[in-house]
Automatic annotation (TrEMBL):
Belongs to the OSBP family. GO terms for molecular function: cholesterol binding. One of its GO terms (biological process) is lipid transport. Keywords: Coiled coil, Lipid transport, Lipid-binding, Transport. The lineage of its organism: Eukaryota, Metazoa, Chordata, Craniata, Vertebrata. Residues 99-118 are annotated as: Disordered. It holds the Pfam family Oxysterol_BP. SUPFAM superfamilies: Oxysterol-binding protein-like (SSF144000). One of its GO terms (cellular component) is plasma membrane. This is Oxysterol-binding protein. It comes from Monodon monoceros (Narwhal).
Length: 538
């Protein structure tokens, strides 16, 4: 007899047997009409059935990327099934044991389903910065642009800025989800969630990524997540990083160029990631553009470091005229607004269609404007009753030298009737000993046997200073950093003597096709792997 309908449909869905993108159904005769959405099928999946799936899903089967609310995240190593995350994380396991000299060159066997495992920790724990004086370096830099200042390696994390940019892709399932949504409003909701998720990995990340060398590149292909990515450092002064990513199922293009501006303001360092980010959903002939918020690291001289994001992000759908406006709120008095994001989606006539709220460190929710305004009105009444007590609180003295770390609520107050748009992945338990990296981030500098033969010689994974720091050899890392920087300076002097201009390899300077603003555009050809003309930068 036919198994319970919900179990059968859920099994079929996870095993990749359910219809997607118009393909015919292969195995089940039961209808999916009983479910209002794909995530309902996952939520109703019995634990024993999920356990059985780990052994029975055929290796040749992969979860269809177009399933709107799902995605395999092999970087999520918790092994737990989370209804809030709206995807199955227990089907693909990540090895949490220390593997053959993790971080060094080594092979890993493929998983049972054919997807490559990725490392789950770094080869050496993070060192303490307590013995280093930031003030001795920064006291002469107040108001200056920090990208022109040589910083000791003690303040770095073992990643290049190009790899930091790649962290945009940690929640790429939101792009796949947007591509499969039938309505523009639903697509904008997923795009907005992706834009917020792109900065979530910066939470508690107080280390500075290595400045990329001119001509440096980074590539990443994740078949399990359905994308490949390439970036190049196209300018050194000013520092400009260009990137391009595409879906392996030809469902999206994601590209842009980042002009990071870092300034020191006495007690804090402010990072303004200038540059336009573009997402193209090819199936819908839609393009979305936006810029990221400003990031600020507090207490760089004394006290506990903490991070906030602030500023307004506007996401524009250039086909429909719809716009999403997101306000990343500054901390404010008593830390009440810390990490908060609030905004809305409006149509081309500026009519609000959907309200969005949450925290960039945790999750994002949305609901109907009328319900949102009703809730906020009631909230304002409650706040007014507390105003007298707040007015009696003493203000912080002018002489304070430390920006107290605000106490943020652990969860977002969910308004009844809200829809979950995104929730952050749980970080690995040893994250604090790994520069507060996420599971996705830990894998970015992984170098496995044979990779040197296919990577461009300019790839970040081959940088000896970053590799040395990752392996815990700070002396070697510092020496190599100085050597590489001097080699770069000598190459610049040589070009000046020959009156030759630097030629980028994979990107060219142009204009963004949707905004008209200056941009660096991918010229193609990287994945054909002709690296004969690549410079010797290491």
């Amino acid at each position: 007899s036919c198994p319970p309908r919900k179990d059968l449909e859920s099994v079929a869905l996870v095993a990749g047997w359910w219809p997607h993108a118009g393909s015919p159904r292969e195995r089940s005769s039961c209808s999916a009409s009983t479910f209002g959405s794909w995530e309902e099928a996952f939520i109703t999946l019995d634990v024993s059935v999920r356990s059985t799936l780990e052994l029975q899903v055929p290796a040749c089967r992969k979860l269809p990327l177009c399933l709107s609310r799902t995605g395999f995240d092999s970087d999520n190593s918790s092994g737990e099934f989370s209804e809030a995350n709206q995807r199955v994380t227990g089907v693909i396991h990540v090895d949490t044991s220390k593997s053959n000299g993790i971080g060094k060159v080594g092979e890993r066997p493929p998983q049972e389903n054919g997807i490559q495992k990725h490392r789950t920790s770094l080869p050496a724990p993070m060192f303490t910065r307590s013995d280093f004086s930031v003030w001795s370096i920064l006291k002469k830099c107040i108001g200056l642009e920090l990208s022109k200042i040589t910083m000791p390696i003690a303040f770095n994390e073992p990643l290049s800025f190009l790899q930091r940019i790649t962290e945009y892709m940690e929640h790429v399932y939101l792009i796949h989800k947007a591509s499969c949504q039938p309505q523009p409003l639903e697509r904008m909701q997923s795009v907005a969630a992706f834009a917020v998720s792109a900065v979530a990995s910066q939470w508690e990340r107080t280390g500075k990524p290595f400045n990329p060398l001119l001509g440096e590149t980074y590539e990443l292909t994740r078949e399990d997540l359905g994308f490949r990515f390439i970036s190049e450092q196209v300018s050194h002064h000013p520092p400009i990083s260009a990137f391009y990513s595409e879906g392996l199922h030809q469902d999206f293009l994601f590209h842009g160029s980042i002009y990071p501006k870092l300034k020191f303001w006495g007690k804090s360092v402010e990072a303004e990631p200038r540059g336009t980010i573009t997402l193209e959903l090819l199936k819908h002939n839609e393009a979305y553009t936006w810029t990221n918020p400003t990031c600020c690291v507090h207490n760089v001289i004394i006290g506990k470091l903490w991070i906030e994001q602030y500023g307004t992000v506007e996401i524009v759908n250039h086909r429909t005229g719809d716009k999403c406006v997101l306000h990343f709120k500054p901390c404010g008095l008593f830390g009440k607004e810390l990490h908060k994001v609030e905004g809305y989606i409006q149509d081309k006539n500026k009519k609000k269609l959907f309200m969005i709220y949450g925290k960039w460190t945790e999750c994002l929710w949305g609901l109907d404007p009328a319900a949102y305004e009703s809730f906020k009105k009631q909230e304002r009444r409650t706040d007014s009753l507390r105003k007298t007590k707040l007015d009696d609180c003493p203000e912080k003295a002018d002489g304070d030298v430390v920006d107290a770390v605000p106490e943020a609520q652990e969860t977002v107050q969910v308004i009844p009737g809200s829809k979950l748009l995104w929730r952050v992945n749980t970080r690995p338990p040893n994250s604090a000993q790994m520069y507060n990296f996420t599971s996705f981030t830990v894998s970015l500098n992984e170098l496995e046997t044979g990779m040197e033969k296919i990577l461009a010689p300019t790839d970040c994974r081959l940088r000896p200073d970053i590799r040395g720091m990752e392996n815990g050899n700070m002396d070697l890392a510092s020496q190599e950093k100085e050597r590489l920087e001097e080699k770069q300076r000598e190459a610049r002097r040589e070009r000046a003597r020959e009156e030759a201009e630097w030629q980028t390899r994979w990107f060219h300077r142009g204009s963004n096709p949707y905004t008209g603003t200056p941009d660096w555009l991918y010229v193609g050809g990287y994945f054909e792997r002709d690296f004969s003309g690549c410079p010797d930068i290491y």
